[in-house]
Write a structure and sequence with these properties.
With about 250 residues, the protein is of the alpha/beta class. It has eleven helices and ten strands. It has a five-stranded parallel β-sheet with strand order 4-5-6-7-8. The longest helix has 20 residues.
Length: about 250
């Protein structure tokens, strides 16, 4: 029986010392990697650096902390590159202490990106730190079926996100965190996807890598009271549904 391929929906592959070795390890583990980027320039550089290879999609990103200081030229460049992107991310909002001063600029960029119809036809991975309610509201209004990456916001907003058709990606650091426990128990299994946010997220004492998602899946299997094989099949089916929703957006 074929083992379903899993997807690391949010990985900063360019931040590892040896990205190619990490990708090769992921391929052996049956993990497809979505390499998120922080701005259009980094997207073009990473595509050139890694080229076309099995098991990898480079996502077109505009991190909110970059977007807050962006020029109109940067936004125009992002929108110009959209047709060639298979995934979008990381985009979003950040109203934490690090980003609150650029709130208005971030909102302007995020709204401009979401207004482009092409965004509704791509899987999207979204940053929402300190701006969870605003991010969910913007995505719901735009009818974008996005993934909330490493969600740390109020549990009360989770139902709004689910009603908006959003997904949640879980990483190795989250399953080791007591703080994330209530979120994991609240999420319906059919809305859960996987991520590492590596190398920034940790897996024990080291940076997380895509192959660590096998352990994340084992934790979810115990939480859902099913076998690891059943959990892998369930998450793989979620990934297929995400792609279907992206390819067939609401009219």
């Amino acid at each position: 029986m074929t083992v379903p391929v899993l997807t690391d929906t949010h990985c900063h592959i360019d931040a590892y010392d040896n990205p190619v070795a990490v990708l090769e390890d992921a391929h052996r583990a049956g993990i497809h990697v979505i390499a998120v980027t922080e701005d259009p320039g980094k997207y073009r550089l990473l595509r050139t650096r890694l080229g076309r290879r099995d098991g990898l999609d480079v996502a077109l990103g505009f991190h909110p902390l970059r977007a807050g200081n962006a020029s109109p030229h940067d936004l125009a460049r992002f929108l110009r590159l959209l047709p060639q992107a298979t995934w979008i991310g990381e985009i979003g909002l950040d109203f934490s202490r690090a980003g609150v001063k650029t709130r208005k600029q971030q909102l302007r960029v995020f709204e401009s990106i979401l207004a482009d119809p092409q965004v509704r036809t791509r899987p999207v991975t979204v940053h929402s730190r300190g701006a969870e309610r605003e991010t969910i509201a913007q995505l719901a209004q735009a009818q974008v079926s996005a993934i909330l990456h490493w969600y740390t916001g109020p549990l009360a907003a989770v139902d709004d996100a689910l009603a908006a058709g959003l997904w949640f990606s879980i990483n190795p650091a989250m399953v080791r965190s007591t703080k994330a426990g209530p979120l994991l128990r609240r999420l319906p299994p059919e809305r859960v996807l996987l991520e590492t946010d590596g190398p920034f997220a940790r897996s024990g004492s080291r940076s997380a890598v895509p192959s660590d998602l096998i352990g994340t899946l084992d934790h979810l299997a115990r939480l859902w009271d099913i076998s690891p094989g059943e959990a892998r099949k369930a998450v793989a089916q979620n990934e297929q549904r995400l792609r279907y929703h992206s390819e067939h957006p609401p009219a």
